[in-house]
Design goal:
- With 211 residues, the chain is mainly alpha-helical.
- The chain has two domains: 30 residues, no CATH class; 172 residues, no CATH class.
- Helices cover 50% and strands 11% of the residues.
- The chain is built from eight helices and five strands, in the order ααββααβββαααα.
- Strands 3-4-5 form a three-stranded antiparallel beta sheet, with no helix packed on it. A two-stranded antiparallel sheet has the order 1-2.
- α3 packs across α4, α3 runs parallel beside α6 and α6 crosses α7.
- The longest helix is centred in the middle third of the chain and has 24 residues.
- The protein is globular, with a radius of gyration of 22 Å.
- It starts with a helix and ends with a helix.
Length: 211
């Protein structure tokens, strides 16, 4: 590659456009950078198979940014295991903060922590495929991190969004504001948009993989 580029600069004054044609033939064009998609970027059709295996098919992209491409579905056993520990710690701490509300919803400590664990992992799967560094929603408020905290609706949270422990804590607190765990489906849906019930159903489907 470097040899061809050197030849280009040495020859341009004498051959002009002909040299450009030669270089285009010998040097393949650079591929555009591939950025992983967030939930809002792709449209999936998913089916739960036996053995908690989720089969998903990408049926289309919704982003106007042509450099976004569909990412493969990552199964739970391929995720950085430290993230699972962070989620578990987040859910135990959340129970301690919200014990009266949780008890009134009929959840025991163990049931709550288990459900919280599956829901937060389901959200992380839907939003970023468990990628803590993901930058999404380009041109639509800018979202960051493992659960894609949108900076338009939550300004000043970028640092938190890129820290999985902070991001999961932020997410579960938002779910409680929307009535979790008693209003489980509504709370999950409203993380994305209270007017987007498909998001809530998708996350609940993803959450089954983490039970």
């Amino acid at each position: 590659m470097n040899i061809y580029r050197a030849a280009l600069w040495a020859t341009v004054p004498f051959t002009g456009a002909a040299c450009i044609i030669i270089v285009n033939l010998l040097i393949p064009p650079l591929a555009p950078p591939v950025r992983e998609p967030a939930y809002a970027t792709e449209r999936l059709t998913c089916t739960m198979l036996s053995g908690n295996t989720l089969a998903c098919e990408v049926v289309g992209l919704a982003s106007a940014d042509s450099q976004w491409f569909a990412a493969p579905v990552i199964q739970p056993d391929k995720v950085d295991k430290s993230l699972y520990s962070i989620v578990a710690d987040t859910c135990r701490a959340s129970y301690d903060r919200h014990a009266p509300q949780i008890a009134s919803a009929g959840f025991s400590p163990g049931t709550y922590v288990s459900d919280c664990y599956s829901v937060l992992n389901g959200m992380a799967h839907a939003e970023s495929r468990h990628r803590p560094w993901l930058h999404g929603d380009i041109g639509n408020g800018e979202a960051y991190g493992i659960v894609q905290i949108n900076q338009h609706f939550h300004p000043g949270t970028k640092t938190c969004a890129l820290d999985p422990a902070c991001a999961f804590r932020f997410a579960i607190e938002r779910l409680h504001r929307y009535g979790y765990p008693k209003l489980r489906t509504r709370a999950i849906t409203c993380w994305n948009s209270c007017n987007n019930p498909k998001y809530g159903e998708d996350v609940k489907l993803f959450a089954q993989m983490y039970k």
